[in-house]
Amino acid sequence: MLLDVRNLTVKLNSTNLTINAIDKMSLSMRDGSIHGLVGETGSGKSLFAKALIGTLSDKWTVQADRMFWQGEDLLKLSTDKRRQIINRDMAMIFQEPSRSLDPTVTIGEQINEVIPKSEFQGSIFSRRQERLQIAKNLLIRVGIKHYQQCYDSYPHELSEGLCQKVMIAMAIIRSPKLLIADEPTDAMESTTKIQIMRLLQKLNTQKNMSVLLITHDLESVINYAEEMTLLYSGQSVESGAVKELLKRPYHPYTQNLFKSIPKFNTDTRPKSRLETLPGSTPPLQHLPIGCRLGPRCPRAQKECVYTPKSVKLKGHVFSCHHPINLE
Amino acid sequence: MSVLLEVNDLSKTYKRKVLPWKSKHITALEKISFSLDKYQTLAIVGETGSGKSTLAKLLAGAEKPSTGEILLDGKAIFTTEHKERCKNIRMIFQDPATSLNPSVSIGQILEEPLKLNTNLTALEREDKIKKTLARVGLLSDYMWHYPHMLSSGQKQRVALARALILDPKIIVADKPFAAMDPSTRSQMVNLLLELQQTFGIAYIFVSHNLNIVKHISDQIFVMQDGKVVEQGKTLEILKAPRHGLTQKLLYSQQMLRKN
Fold first, then answer.
1. Which domains can be identified in chain A, with CATH numbers?
2. Is the full-model pTM beyond 0.90?
Protein backbone atom coordinates (compact mmCIF):
# COMPACT_ATOMS: atom_id res chain seq x y z
CA MET A 1 0.00 0.00 0.00
CA LEU A 2 1.48 3.33 -1.04
CA LEU A 3 -0.89 5.68 0.70
CA ASP A 4 -3.45 4.73 3.31
CA VAL A 5 -5.57 7.46 4.86
CA ARG A 6 -8.23 6.45 7.33
CA ASN A 7 -10.91 8.74 8.75
CA LEU A 8 -9.30 12.01 7.82
CA THR A 9 -11.06 15.04 9.25
CA VAL A 10 -10.10 18.57 8.27
CA LYS A 11 -11.59 21.28 10.43
CA LEU A 12 -11.87 24.96 9.68
CA ASN A 13 -11.63 26.99 12.88
CA SER A 14 -13.28 30.36 12.81
CA THR A 15 -14.13 32.60 15.75
CA ASN A 16 -17.54 31.22 16.65
CA LEU A 17 -17.77 27.81 15.07
CA THR A 18 -15.72 24.98 13.68
CA ILE A 19 -16.69 23.29 10.46
CA ASN A 20 -15.66 19.83 9.36
CA ALA A 21 -14.83 20.61 5.75
CA ILE A 22 -13.71 17.01 5.28
CA ASP A 23 -15.54 14.55 7.50
CA LYS A 24 -14.03 11.11 8.13
CA MET A 25 -12.80 10.45 4.66
CA SER A 26 -10.76 7.39 3.76
CA LEU A 27 -8.60 6.70 0.75
CA SER A 28 -6.04 4.06 -0.03
CA MET A 29 -3.80 3.79 -3.06
CA ARG A 30 -1.87 0.86 -4.44
CA ASP A 31 1.69 1.24 -5.61
CA GLY A 32 1.90 2.27 -9.26
CA SER A 33 -1.76 2.89 -9.92
CA ILE A 34 -3.79 5.79 -11.24
CA HIS A 35 -6.36 6.69 -8.64
CA GLY A 36 -9.20 9.07 -9.43
CA LEU A 37 -10.61 11.34 -6.75
CA VAL A 38 -13.92 12.59 -8.04
CA GLY A 39 -16.26 15.15 -6.56
CA GLU A 40 -18.14 18.31 -7.32
CA THR A 41 -16.84 21.81 -6.74
CA GLY A 42 -16.48 22.43 -3.03
CA SER A 43 -16.49 18.78 -2.07
CA GLY A 44 -13.02 19.06 -0.57
CA LYS A 45 -10.91 17.35 -3.24
CA SER A 46 -8.26 20.03 -3.39
CA LEU A 47 -8.39 20.36 0.38
CA PHE A 48 -7.50 16.70 0.67
CA ALA A 49 -4.46 17.18 -1.55
CA LYS A 50 -3.36 20.16 0.51
CA ALA A 51 -3.84 18.28 3.77
CA LEU A 52 -1.80 15.42 2.38
CA ILE A 53 1.21 17.51 1.40
CA GLY A 54 0.81 19.70 4.46
CA THR A 55 0.38 23.12 2.94
CA LEU A 56 -2.72 24.20 4.86
CA SER A 57 -2.51 27.33 6.98
CA ASP A 58 -3.02 27.23 10.77
CA LYS A 59 -6.70 28.04 10.33
CA TRP A 60 -7.19 24.40 9.53
CA THR A 61 -6.63 21.41 11.78
CA VAL A 62 -5.97 18.01 10.28
CA GLN A 63 -6.83 14.87 12.24
CA ALA A 64 -6.78 11.28 11.10
CA ASP A 65 -6.83 7.80 12.55
CA ARG A 66 -3.88 7.21 10.33
CA MET A 67 -2.17 8.73 7.34
CA PHE A 68 0.33 6.12 6.26
CA TRP A 69 2.81 6.86 3.51
CA GLN A 70 4.65 3.63 2.76
CA GLY A 71 4.16 2.46 6.33
CA GLU A 72 5.09 5.74 8.03
CA ASP A 73 2.45 7.85 9.73
CA LEU A 74 2.90 11.35 8.32
CA LEU A 75 0.92 13.03 11.07
CA LYS A 76 3.12 11.63 13.82
CA LEU A 77 6.37 12.84 12.28
CA SER A 78 7.95 16.19 13.05
CA THR A 79 7.31 18.95 10.54
CA ASP A 80 10.86 18.84 9.22
CA LYS A 81 10.90 15.09 8.74
CA ARG A 82 7.51 15.18 7.09
CA ARG A 83 8.58 17.91 4.74
CA GLN A 84 11.63 15.90 3.75
CA ILE A 85 9.54 12.86 2.88
CA ILE A 86 7.03 14.91 0.91
CA ASN A 87 9.80 16.75 -0.88
CA ARG A 88 11.40 13.45 -1.87
CA ASP A 89 8.34 11.42 -2.80
CA MET A 90 5.48 13.66 -3.87
CA ALA A 91 4.89 16.33 -6.47
CA MET A 92 1.85 18.28 -7.47
CA ILE A 93 0.52 19.94 -10.62
CA PHE A 94 -2.33 22.39 -10.71
CA GLN A 95 -5.20 23.49 -12.90
CA GLU A 96 -4.71 26.44 -15.22
CA PRO A 97 -0.97 25.92 -15.71
CA SER A 98 -0.40 29.24 -17.43
CA ARG A 99 -1.41 30.96 -14.21
CA SER A 100 0.78 28.87 -11.92
CA LEU A 101 3.94 29.57 -13.91
CA ASP A 102 5.85 32.78 -13.29
CA PRO A 103 4.98 35.15 -16.16
CA THR A 104 8.13 37.26 -15.81
CA VAL A 105 10.71 34.49 -16.18
CA THR A 106 11.46 32.20 -19.12
CA ILE A 107 10.53 28.53 -18.95
CA GLY A 108 14.20 27.55 -18.99
CA GLU A 109 15.03 29.58 -15.89
CA GLN A 110 11.99 28.24 -14.06
CA ILE A 111 13.03 24.68 -14.78
CA ASN A 112 16.62 25.40 -13.71
CA GLU A 113 15.33 26.71 -10.42
CA VAL A 114 13.72 23.43 -9.44
CA ILE A 115 16.64 21.15 -10.34
CA PRO A 116 17.94 19.88 -7.00
CA LYS A 117 21.68 19.91 -6.26
CA SER A 118 21.76 16.14 -5.93
CA GLU A 119 21.13 15.80 -9.66
CA PHE A 120 24.53 17.24 -10.58
CA GLN A 121 27.48 14.94 -10.92
CA GLY A 122 30.27 17.03 -12.44
CA SER A 123 32.37 19.78 -10.87
CA ILE A 124 31.03 23.24 -10.12
CA PHE A 125 32.43 24.57 -13.40
CA SER A 126 30.39 22.25 -15.57
CA ARG A 127 27.14 23.08 -13.76
CA ARG A 128 25.85 25.38 -16.48
CA GLN A 129 26.19 22.75 -19.16
CA GLU A 130 24.68 20.11 -16.93
CA ARG A 131 21.69 22.26 -16.04
CA LEU A 132 20.94 22.87 -19.68
CA GLN A 133 21.23 19.18 -20.47
CA ILE A 134 18.93 18.12 -17.60
CA ALA A 135 16.31 20.71 -18.49
CA LYS A 136 16.34 19.63 -22.12
CA ASN A 137 16.06 15.97 -21.25
CA LEU A 138 13.07 16.76 -19.09
CA LEU A 139 11.33 18.67 -21.85
CA ILE A 140 11.96 15.80 -24.25
CA ARG A 141 10.64 13.34 -21.70
CA VAL A 142 7.28 15.09 -21.49
CA GLY A 143 7.02 15.08 -25.26
CA ILE A 144 7.85 18.65 -26.28
CA LYS A 145 9.36 18.51 -29.75
CA HIS A 146 10.67 22.06 -30.09
CA TYR A 147 12.37 22.05 -26.73
CA GLN A 148 14.90 24.76 -27.52
CA GLN A 149 12.16 27.17 -28.52
CA CYS A 150 10.13 26.24 -25.46
CA TYR A 151 13.17 26.65 -23.21
CA ASP A 152 13.62 30.27 -24.32
CA SER A 153 10.00 31.38 -24.25
CA TYR A 154 7.82 32.94 -21.60
CA PRO A 155 4.67 31.21 -20.30
CA HIS A 156 2.29 33.51 -22.18
CA GLU A 157 3.88 32.51 -25.48
CA LEU A 158 2.98 28.86 -25.00
CA SER A 159 -0.38 27.16 -25.32
CA GLU A 160 -2.19 25.83 -22.27
CA GLY A 161 -1.28 22.26 -23.15
CA LEU A 162 2.41 23.07 -23.45
CA CYS A 163 2.33 24.93 -20.13
CA GLN A 164 0.85 21.88 -18.44
CA LYS A 165 3.59 19.74 -19.98
CA VAL A 166 6.19 22.12 -18.56
CA MET A 167 4.51 21.86 -15.16
CA ILE A 168 4.66 18.08 -15.37
CA ALA A 169 8.32 18.29 -16.38
CA MET A 170 9.04 20.38 -13.29
CA ALA A 171 7.12 17.94 -11.11
CA ILE A 172 8.85 14.77 -12.28
CA ILE A 173 12.37 16.14 -11.90
CA ARG A 174 13.09 14.05 -8.80
CA SER A 175 11.08 11.10 -10.12
CA PRO A 176 8.51 11.24 -7.33
CA LYS A 177 6.57 8.16 -6.27
CA LEU A 178 3.30 10.04 -6.28
CA LEU A 179 2.14 12.78 -8.59
CA ILE A 180 -0.91 14.68 -7.39
CA ALA A 181 -2.69 16.17 -10.38
CA ASP A 182 -5.27 18.71 -9.25
CA GLU A 183 -7.68 19.14 -12.16
CA PRO A 184 -4.86 18.99 -14.73
CA THR A 185 -7.14 19.23 -17.76
CA ASP A 186 -9.84 21.56 -16.50
CA ALA A 187 -11.25 23.80 -19.27
CA MET A 188 -8.89 22.45 -21.92
CA GLU A 189 -9.66 21.46 -25.50
CA SER A 190 -10.46 17.79 -25.87
CA THR A 191 -7.49 17.15 -28.14
CA THR A 192 -5.06 18.81 -25.70
CA LYS A 193 -6.70 17.03 -22.82
CA ILE A 194 -6.05 13.64 -24.32
CA GLN A 195 -2.36 14.50 -24.81
CA ILE A 196 -1.95 15.38 -21.13
CA MET A 197 -3.83 12.31 -19.98
CA ARG A 198 -1.74 10.10 -22.27
CA LEU A 199 1.42 11.66 -20.88
CA LEU A 200 0.34 10.94 -17.31
CA GLN A 201 -0.52 7.40 -18.32
CA LYS A 202 2.86 6.94 -19.97
CA LEU A 203 4.70 8.20 -16.90
CA ASN A 204 2.61 5.87 -14.81
CA THR A 205 3.52 2.76 -16.78
CA GLN A 206 7.13 3.58 -17.64
CA LYS A 207 8.37 5.16 -14.42
CA ASN A 208 5.95 3.32 -12.14
CA MET A 209 4.81 6.67 -10.81
CA SER A 210 1.45 6.63 -9.05
CA VAL A 211 -0.95 9.37 -10.00
CA LEU A 212 -3.70 10.78 -7.82
CA LEU A 213 -6.03 12.34 -10.35
CA ILE A 214 -8.26 14.94 -8.73
CA THR A 215 -11.02 16.02 -11.07
CA HIS A 216 -14.72 16.52 -11.59
CA ASP A 217 -14.48 15.13 -15.09
CA LEU A 218 -15.87 11.64 -14.63
CA GLU A 219 -15.20 10.67 -18.23
CA SER A 220 -11.43 10.97 -18.03
CA VAL A 221 -11.34 9.10 -14.73
CA ILE A 222 -13.29 6.25 -16.25
CA ASN A 223 -10.96 6.11 -19.23
CA TYR A 224 -7.64 6.35 -17.45
CA ALA A 225 -7.92 5.45 -13.79
CA GLU A 226 -8.02 1.97 -12.33
CA GLU A 227 -9.54 2.87 -9.01
CA MET A 228 -11.58 5.80 -7.88
CA THR A 229 -12.93 7.44 -4.77
CA LEU A 230 -16.06 9.55 -4.85
CA LEU A 231 -16.44 12.48 -2.53
CA TYR A 232 -19.57 14.42 -1.68
CA SER A 233 -19.36 17.51 0.56
CA GLY A 234 -16.29 16.17 2.32
CA GLN A 235 -17.63 12.70 3.00
CA SER A 236 -16.37 9.73 1.06
CA VAL A 237 -19.23 8.13 -0.80
CA GLU A 238 -17.87 5.06 -2.50
CA SER A 239 -14.53 3.74 -3.61
CA GLY A 240 -13.32 0.75 -5.55
CA ALA A 241 -12.16 -0.39 -8.97
CA VAL A 242 -13.61 1.78 -11.74
CA LYS A 243 -14.98 -1.14 -13.75
CA GLU A 244 -16.73 -2.62 -10.76
CA LEU A 245 -18.23 0.71 -9.81
CA LEU A 246 -19.50 1.24 -13.33
CA LYS A 247 -21.04 -2.20 -13.42
CA ARG A 248 -22.57 -2.13 -10.01
CA PRO A 249 -22.66 1.03 -7.93
CA TYR A 250 -23.96 0.57 -4.39
CA HIS A 251 -24.43 4.20 -3.47
CA PRO A 252 -27.34 6.16 -4.99
CA TYR A 253 -25.05 9.13 -5.59
CA THR A 254 -22.62 7.06 -7.66
CA GLN A 255 -25.39 5.69 -9.80
CA ASN A 256 -26.80 9.13 -10.33
CA LEU A 257 -23.45 10.55 -11.34
CA PHE A 258 -22.95 7.86 -13.97
CA LYS A 259 -26.46 8.39 -15.27
CA SER A 260 -25.90 12.12 -15.66
CA ILE A 261 -23.48 11.49 -18.52
CA PRO A 262 -25.42 10.75 -21.71
CA LYS A 263 -22.68 8.55 -23.12
CA PHE A 264 -22.91 5.80 -20.55
CA ASN A 265 -26.56 5.11 -20.97
CA THR A 266 -26.81 4.64 -24.69
CA ASP A 267 -30.55 4.08 -24.62
CA THR A 268 -31.38 7.73 -23.82
CA ARG A 269 -33.00 9.46 -26.72
CA PRO A 270 -31.56 12.81 -27.74
CA LYS A 271 -33.32 15.73 -26.04
CA SER A 272 -34.78 13.51 -23.33
CA ARG A 273 -34.43 14.48 -19.68
CA LEU A 274 -31.22 13.54 -17.97
CA GLU A 275 -31.45 12.13 -14.49
CA THR A 276 -30.19 14.42 -11.77
CA LEU A 277 -30.58 14.92 -8.08
CA PRO A 278 -32.70 17.92 -7.12
CA GLY A 279 -31.07 20.91 -5.47
CA SER A 280 -27.39 21.80 -5.28
CA THR A 281 -24.44 20.98 -3.07
CA PRO A 282 -24.78 22.59 0.38
CA PRO A 283 -22.44 25.46 1.25
CA LEU A 284 -19.97 24.91 4.10
CA GLN A 285 -21.88 26.98 6.65
CA HIS A 286 -25.11 25.03 6.13
CA LEU A 287 -24.02 21.42 6.08
CA PRO A 288 -26.75 18.94 6.96
CA ILE A 289 -26.09 16.56 9.86
CA GLY A 290 -25.58 12.86 9.35
CA CYS A 291 -25.25 11.77 5.74
CA ARG A 292 -24.67 15.00 3.85
CA LEU A 293 -26.42 13.71 0.77
CA GLY A 294 -29.57 13.20 2.90
CA PRO A 295 -31.74 16.14 1.79
CA ARG A 296 -31.13 15.41 -1.89
CA CYS A 297 -31.17 11.63 -1.77
CA PRO A 298 -34.17 9.81 -3.30
CA ARG A 299 -33.74 6.90 -0.87
CA ALA A 300 -33.26 8.91 2.30
CA GLN A 301 -35.01 7.60 5.40
CA LYS A 302 -35.03 8.20 9.12
CA GLU A 303 -31.60 6.73 9.85
CA CYS A 304 -29.90 9.10 7.43
CA VAL A 305 -29.56 11.80 10.10
CA TYR A 306 -26.74 9.67 11.51
CA THR A 307 -23.48 9.48 9.63
CA PRO A 308 -23.34 6.07 7.92
CA LYS A 309 -20.44 3.75 8.67
CA SER A 310 -18.37 2.63 5.74
CA VAL A 311 -19.07 -0.93 4.65
CA LYS A 312 -16.64 -3.08 2.69
CA LEU A 313 -18.19 -5.47 0.23
CA LYS A 314 -16.48 -7.28 -2.67
CA GLY A 315 -13.70 -4.72 -2.86
CA HIS A 316 -16.03 -1.72 -2.77
CA VAL A 317 -16.15 0.56 0.20
CA PHE A 318 -19.33 2.56 0.48
CA SER A 319 -21.11 4.51 3.18
CA CYS A 320 -24.86 4.44 2.93
CA HIS A 321 -27.72 3.21 5.11
CA HIS A 322 -29.82 2.15 2.16
CA PRO A 323 -27.52 0.96 -0.63
CA ILE A 324 -28.87 -0.03 -4.01
CA ASN A 325 -28.11 -3.04 -6.21
CA LEU A 326 -27.70 -5.36 -3.24
CA GLU A 327 -30.64 -7.67 -3.85
CA MET B 1 -43.97 30.09 -43.73
CA SER B 2 -40.56 31.60 -43.41
CA VAL B 3 -37.90 30.11 -41.21
CA LEU B 4 -36.93 31.75 -37.96
CA LEU B 5 -33.34 32.51 -38.73
CA GLU B 6 -31.62 32.55 -42.07
CA VAL B 7 -27.98 33.36 -42.60
CA ASN B 8 -26.64 34.11 -46.07
CA ASP B 9 -22.95 34.32 -46.95
CA LEU B 10 -21.92 35.62 -43.57
CA SER B 11 -18.19 36.19 -43.21
CA LYS B 12 -15.69 38.13 -41.14
CA THR B 13 -12.23 39.36 -42.00
CA TYR B 14 -10.02 41.40 -39.72
CA LYS B 15 -7.72 44.04 -41.15
CA ARG B 16 -4.38 44.59 -39.54
CA LYS B 17 -2.02 47.39 -40.55
CA VAL B 18 1.43 45.94 -41.00
CA LEU B 19 2.87 49.16 -42.44
CA PRO B 20 1.09 52.50 -42.99
CA TRP B 21 0.44 51.70 -46.63
CA LYS B 22 0.10 47.97 -46.33
CA SER B 23 -2.49 46.00 -44.45
CA LYS B 24 -2.96 42.32 -43.88
CA HIS B 25 -6.32 40.56 -44.00
CA ILE B 26 -7.05 37.74 -41.63
CA THR B 27 -10.11 35.67 -42.38
CA ALA B 28 -11.72 34.63 -39.12
CA LEU B 29 -14.82 33.22 -40.76
CA GLU B 30 -15.38 32.28 -44.37
CA LYS B 31 -18.74 32.61 -46.08
CA ILE B 32 -21.37 30.57 -44.34
CA SER B 33 -25.09 30.06 -44.95
CA PHE B 34 -27.60 28.14 -42.92
CA SER B 35 -31.11 28.32 -41.55
CA LEU B 36 -32.58 27.49 -38.19
CA ASP B 37 -36.19 26.89 -37.22
CA LYS B 38 -38.13 27.03 -33.98
CA TYR B 39 -37.57 24.17 -31.52
CA GLN B 40 -34.24 23.48 -33.24
CA THR B 41 -30.74 23.41 -31.84
CA LEU B 42 -27.58 24.03 -33.79
CA ALA B 43 -24.25 23.01 -32.31
CA ILE B 44 -20.92 24.39 -33.46
CA VAL B 45 -17.82 22.37 -32.60
CA GLY B 46 -14.18 22.80 -33.49
CA GLU B 47 -10.75 23.52 -32.12
CA THR B 48 -9.45 26.79 -30.70
CA GLY B 49 -9.21 29.54 -33.29
CA SER B 50 -11.53 27.81 -35.71
CA GLY B 51 -13.94 30.75 -35.74
CA LYS B 52 -16.77 29.28 -33.70
CA SER B 53 -16.80 32.11 -31.20
CA THR B 54 -16.61 34.62 -34.06
CA LEU B 55 -19.75 33.14 -35.57
CA ALA B 56 -21.52 33.31 -32.22
CA LYS B 57 -20.47 36.94 -31.78
CA LEU B 58 -21.65 37.87 -35.28
CA LEU B 59 -25.05 36.36 -34.63
CA ALA B 60 -25.43 38.10 -31.30
CA GLY B 61 -24.37 41.41 -32.77
CA ALA B 62 -21.20 41.85 -30.77
CA GLU B 63 -19.26 42.19 -34.03
CA LYS B 64 -20.15 43.55 -37.45
CA PRO B 65 -19.89 41.08 -40.31
CA SER B 66 -17.76 41.90 -43.37
CA THR B 67 -20.23 40.43 -45.84
CA GLY B 68 -23.59 38.73 -45.80
CA GLU B 69 -26.87 39.19 -44.04
CA ILE B 70 -28.88 37.69 -41.23
CA LEU B 71 -32.62 37.30 -41.75
CA LEU B 72 -34.89 36.98 -38.75
CA ASP B 73 -38.45 35.93 -39.63
CA GLY B 74 -37.71 36.93 -43.20
CA LYS B 75 -36.57 40.45 -42.34
CA ALA B 76 -32.95 41.53 -42.70
CA ILE B 77 -31.67 42.23 -39.24
CA PHE B 78 -29.48 45.25 -39.95
CA THR B 79 -32.28 47.33 -41.32
CA THR B 80 -34.41 46.80 -38.26
CA GLU B 81 -33.73 48.61 -35.04
CA HIS B 82 -31.00 47.51 -32.73
CA LYS B 83 -33.49 46.99 -29.94
CA GLU B 84 -35.37 44.47 -32.00
CA ARG B 85 -32.26 42.38 -32.35
CA CYS B 86 -31.48 42.58 -28.64
CA LYS B 87 -34.93 41.31 -27.86
CA ASN B 88 -34.81 38.39 -30.21
CA ILE B 89 -31.27 37.12 -30.06
CA ARG B 90 -29.65 36.85 -26.63
CA MET B 91 -26.32 35.45 -25.57
CA ILE B 92 -24.98 33.41 -22.63
CA PHE B 93 -21.27 33.48 -21.92
CA GLN B 94 -18.79 30.84 -20.91
CA ASP B 95 -18.04 31.71 -17.31
CA PRO B 96 -20.99 32.98 -15.28
CA ALA B 97 -18.67 34.02 -12.46
CA THR B 98 -17.02 36.67 -14.62
CA SER B 99 -19.97 37.61 -16.82
CA LEU B 100 -22.09 38.90 -13.92
CA ASN B 101 -21.22 42.24 -12.39
CA PRO B 102 -20.13 41.56 -8.79
CA SER B 103 -21.03 45.00 -7.46
CA VAL B 104 -24.67 44.90 -8.53
CA SER B 105 -27.49 42.78 -7.14
CA ILE B 106 -29.19 40.07 -9.22
CA GLY B 107 -32.33 42.18 -9.45
CA GLN B 108 -30.42 45.07 -10.97
CA ILE B 109 -28.54 42.78 -13.34
CA LEU B 110 -31.85 41.51 -14.65
CA GLU B 111 -33.46 44.94 -14.72
CA GLU B 112 -30.83 46.43 -16.99
CA PRO B 113 -31.98 44.82 -20.27
CA LEU B 114 -35.60 45.66 -19.43
CA LYS B 115 -34.75 49.31 -18.85
CA LEU B 116 -32.83 49.54 -22.10
CA ASN B 117 -35.15 47.62 -24.37
CA THR B 118 -38.71 47.96 -23.10
CA ASN B 119 -41.09 50.64 -21.88
CA LEU B 120 -42.25 48.78 -18.77
CA THR B 121 -42.85 50.67 -15.53
CA ALA B 122 -40.85 49.91 -12.41
CA LEU B 123 -43.59 47.71 -10.96
CA GLU B 124 -44.00 45.75 -14.15
CA ARG B 125 -40.26 45.27 -14.34
CA GLU B 126 -40.13 43.81 -10.85
CA ASP B 127 -42.97 41.50 -11.70
CA LYS B 128 -41.20 40.36 -14.83
CA ILE B 129 -37.95 39.72 -12.95
CA LYS B 130 -39.73 37.56 -10.39
CA LYS B 131 -41.46 35.58 -13.12
CA THR B 132 -38.22 34.99 -15.00
CA LEU B 133 -36.40 33.89 -11.86
CA ALA B 134 -39.17 31.39 -11.21
CA ARG B 135 -38.83 30.13 -14.78
CA VAL B 136 -35.19 29.19 -14.31
CA GLY B 137 -35.94 27.57 -10.97
CA LEU B 138 -34.77 30.27 -8.54
CA LEU B 139 -36.67 31.91 -5.71
CA SER B 140 -37.74 35.50 -6.23
CA ASP B 141 -35.78 36.42 -3.06
CA TYR B 142 -32.61 36.03 -5.09
CA MET B 143 -33.36 39.49 -6.49
CA TRP B 144 -31.69 40.96 -3.44
CA HIS B 145 -28.66 38.67 -3.52
CA TYR B 146 -25.30 39.50 -5.05
CA PRO B 147 -23.50 37.16 -7.47
CA HIS B 148 -20.89 36.07 -4.91
CA MET B 149 -23.62 34.69 -2.65
CA LEU B 150 -24.67 32.10 -5.23
CA SER B 151 -23.10 28.81 -6.28
CA SER B 152 -21.76 28.47 -9.81
CA GLY B 153 -24.82 26.53 -10.96
CA GLN B 154 -27.11 29.24 -9.66
CA LYS B 155 -24.97 31.90 -11.33
CA GLN B 156 -25.38 30.18 -14.67
CA ARG B 157 -29.13 30.16 -14.04
CA VAL B 158 -29.02 33.91 -13.45
CA ALA B 159 -27.09 34.31 -16.72
CA LEU B 160 -29.82 32.30 -18.42
CA ALA B 161 -32.49 34.42 -16.75
CA ARG B 162 -30.80 37.53 -18.12
CA ALA B 163 -31.02 36.02 -21.59
CA LEU B 164 -34.62 34.91 -21.14
CA ILE B 165 -36.01 38.08 -19.64
CA LEU B 166 -36.79 39.69 -23.00
CA ASP B 167 -38.57 36.56 -24.30
CA PRO B 168 -36.05 35.93 -27.09
CA LYS B 169 -36.55 33.64 -30.04
CA ILE B 170 -32.92 32.58 -30.28
CA ILE B 171 -30.33 32.06 -27.57
CA VAL B 172 -26.66 31.91 -28.49
CA ALA B 173 -24.57 30.13 -25.87
CA ASP B 174 -20.77 30.21 -25.96
CA LYS B 175 -19.52 27.10 -24.13
CA PRO B 176 -22.10 27.35 -21.36
CA PHE B 177 -21.16 24.04 -19.71
CA ALA B 178 -17.36 24.24 -19.87
CA ALA B 179 -16.69 24.82 -16.18
CA MET B 180 -19.55 22.89 -14.64
CA ASP B 181 -19.83 19.77 -12.51
CA PRO B 182 -21.59 16.79 -14.08
CA SER B 183 -24.67 17.03 -11.88
CA THR B 184 -25.18 20.79 -12.25
CA ARG B 185 -24.53 20.36 -15.94
CA SER B 186 -27.34 17.85 -16.29
CA GLN B 187 -29.68 20.12 -14.36
CA MET B 188 -28.82 22.95 -16.73
CA VAL B 189 -29.28 20.73 -19.80
CA ASN B 190 -32.70 19.67 -18.49
CA LEU B 191 -33.69 23.26 -17.87
CA LEU B 192 -32.64 24.37 -21.36
CA LEU B 193 -34.49 21.49 -23.01
CA GLU B 194 -37.60 22.19 -20.96
CA LEU B 195 -37.57 25.85 -21.96
CA GLN B 196 -37.14 24.87 -25.58
CA GLN B 197 -40.10 22.54 -25.47
CA THR B 198 -42.42 25.06 -23.80
CA PHE B 199 -41.42 28.29 -25.52
CA GLY B 200 -40.01 27.03 -28.82
CA ILE B 201 -36.69 28.82 -28.42
CA ALA B 202 -33.96 27.99 -30.93
CA TYR B 203 -30.48 27.47 -29.50
CA ILE B 204 -27.08 27.91 -31.04
CA PHE B 205 -24.45 26.16 -28.92
CA VAL B 206 -20.73 26.57 -29.19
CA SER B 207 -19.20 23.64 -27.39
CA HIS B 208 -16.46 21.10 -27.38
CA ASN B 209 -18.11 18.41 -25.35
CA LEU B 210 -19.48 16.05 -27.97
CA ASN B 211 -21.44 14.00 -25.44
CA ILE B 212 -23.61 16.95 -24.56
CA VAL B 213 -23.78 18.09 -28.18
CA LYS B 214 -25.02 14.68 -29.19
CA HIS B 215 -27.72 14.87 -26.59
CA ILE B 216 -29.11 18.33 -27.21
CA SER B 217 -28.56 19.29 -30.82
CA ASP B 218 -30.36 18.61 -34.09
CA GLN B 219 -27.80 20.04 -36.47
CA ILE B 220 -24.05 20.20 -36.12
CA PHE B 221 -21.31 22.28 -37.74
CA VAL B 222 -17.72 21.18 -37.49
CA MET B 223 -15.36 24.10 -38.04
CA GLN B 224 -11.70 24.39 -38.86
CA ASP B 225 -9.75 27.56 -39.68
CA GLY B 226 -12.91 29.59 -40.25
CA LYS B 227 -14.44 27.04 -42.59
CA VAL B 228 -17.28 24.65 -41.98
CA VAL B 229 -15.76 21.31 -42.91
CA GLU B 230 -18.71 19.10 -42.10
CA GLN B 231 -22.34 19.87 -41.48
CA GLY B 232 -25.61 18.01 -41.19
CA LYS B 233 -27.82 16.12 -38.77
CA THR B 234 -26.04 15.43 -35.49
CA LEU B 235 -26.84 11.75 -35.21
CA GLU B 236 -25.79 10.97 -38.77
CA ILE B 237 -22.52 12.84 -38.54
CA LEU B 238 -21.54 11.41 -35.20
CA LYS B 239 -22.34 7.94 -36.44
CA ALA B 240 -20.39 8.21 -39.66
CA PRO B 241 -17.91 11.11 -39.57
CA ARG B 242 -16.28 11.84 -42.92
CA HIS B 243 -13.82 14.63 -42.27
CA GLY B 244 -10.56 13.98 -40.47
CA LEU B 245 -11.18 16.65 -37.85
CA THR B 246 -14.54 15.20 -36.85
CA GLN B 247 -12.94 11.82 -36.48
CA LYS B 248 -10.12 13.30 -34.43
CA LEU B 249 -12.54 15.10 -32.12
CA LEU B 250 -14.63 11.99 -31.68
CA TYR B 251 -11.58 9.89 -31.07
CA SER B 252 -10.21 12.31 -28.51
CA GLN B 253 -13.40 11.89 -26.50
CA GLN B 254 -13.39 8.13 -26.84
CA MET B 255 -16.57 8.12 -28.87
CA LEU B 256 -14.93 6.35 -31.76
CA ARG B 257 -12.74 3.29 -31.68
CA LYS B 258 -9.69 3.38 -33.88
CA ASN B 259 -9.66 0.43 -36.24
1. 3-104+154-318 (3.40.50.300)
2. no
